[in-house]
Automatic annotation (TrEMBL):
<dbReference type="InterPro" id="IPR018300">
    <property type="entry name" value="Aminotrans_IV_CS"/>
</dbReference>
<dbReference type="InterPro" id="IPR001544">
    <property type="entry name" value="Aminotrans_IV"/>
</dbReference>
<keyword id="KW-0663">Pyridoxal phosphate</keyword>
<keyword id="KW-0808">Transferase</keyword>
<dbReference type="Pfam" id="PF01063">
    <property type="entry name" value="Aminotran_4"/>
</dbReference>
<comment type="similarity">
    <text>Belongs to the class-IV pyridoxal-phosphate-dependent aminotransferase family.</text>
</comment>
<keyword id="KW-0032">Aminotransferase</keyword>
<dbReference type="InterPro" id="IPR043131">
    <property type="entry name" value="BCAT-like_N"/>
</dbReference>
<dbReference type="InterPro" id="IPR033939">
    <property type="entry name" value="BCAT_family"/>
</dbReference>
<dbReference type="InterPro" id="IPR036038">
    <property type="entry name" value="Aminotransferase-like"/>
</dbReference>
<keyword id="KW-0028">Amino-acid biosynthesis</keyword>
<dbReference type="InterPro" id="IPR005786">
    <property type="entry name" value="B_amino_transII"/>
</dbReference>
<keyword id="KW-0100">Branched-chain amino acid biosynthesis</keyword>
<dbReference type="InterPro" id="IPR043132">
    <property type="entry name" value="BCAT-like_C"/>
</dbReference>
<protein>
    <recommendedName>
        <fullName>Branched-chain-amino-acid aminotransferase</fullName>
        <ecNumber>2.6.1.42</ecNumber>
    </recommendedName>
</protein>
Amino acid sequence: VSPFKRGATFSETQSETCELADIDWDDLGFAYVPTDYMYSMKCTKGVNFSKGELQRFGNIELSPSAGVLNYGQGLFEGLKAYRKEDGNLLLFRPEENAMRMIMGAERMCMPSPTVEQFVDAVKATVLANKRWVPPPGKGSLYIRPLLMGSGAVLGLAPSPEYTFLIYVSPVGNYFKEGVAPIHLIVEYELHRATPGGTGGVKTIGNYAAVLKAQSAAKARGFSDVLYLDCVQKKYLEEVSSCNIFVVKGNTISTPAIKGTILPGITRKSIIDVARSQGFQVEERLVTVDELLDADEVFCTGTAVVVSPVGSITYKGRRVSYGEEGFGAVSEQLYSVLTKLQMGLIEDKMNWTMEL
Ligand code: COI
């Protein structure tokens, strides 16, 4: 039940409700929890978005002929806000998401909000939903910006109108395993992305395209799928919802960004954190065979943060990396990254934005 009075203005309701939402903060997974407000902004002509506004969270109206519904002209982003012990909120690198949306919009023939519009909209949405940001140590507020062709089209063409929308949901761990190791299966028949395609941008269709392999993997007891390149079928690409890293000694390798792999913001941050901790990081082609003698494997993503991989199965052969929890390297990187995100250590990188 919403605690807000019908007809109350946004500032009235804000001054009335600074406390936390009444939910079980110890039981957050990655399932949608409806919150109070969403943000909406439109571009009806040309390339500029008009001033956006906060609205009560709820369903949206779209023409059945909207470009996003018919031809998949849509992008999304994901970022998080954390609550600090002093009650202030921290965003992690929101400008990076804004810039990634601008790049993706160019590929999908869409106009996009400026970095400033994007970041201002994120801040406004988080503050409006402040009571849904979990207490320190209980999780985060997942922020989901969407950009979609909302205008009606029938013949295949860019949409005549675009909507930028942000909604939020409190979240805990992404995988049901929590922070326990996940189990992956290498998929070598179905592919996530092709050279020249859209694998390197966060378009909605990339995620629909992995559901078949992911569902089949889950039905067999795996946590998710690791994709290979579609040409040689031997180089690692990414997992359905996150990037992959392979550790051997003091060297950490991850597939280089080359158009078929999502340029993850957590991926980029972990590379910098790892280098700052004295590891050698290589962005290059990583073969599936390198999994066989890796010391550790882990995944990174906004939703998954850093997730240790317990085993990988490839063509019937299973390689285990330890079932207990994090490996030493992923634990170290997870610890530094999450302390930075939660404001528990000094942010020398200047990555966080306090609200
Ligand atoms: C994220 O990590 O934010 C993503 O966009 C992945 C999504 C499938 C949850």
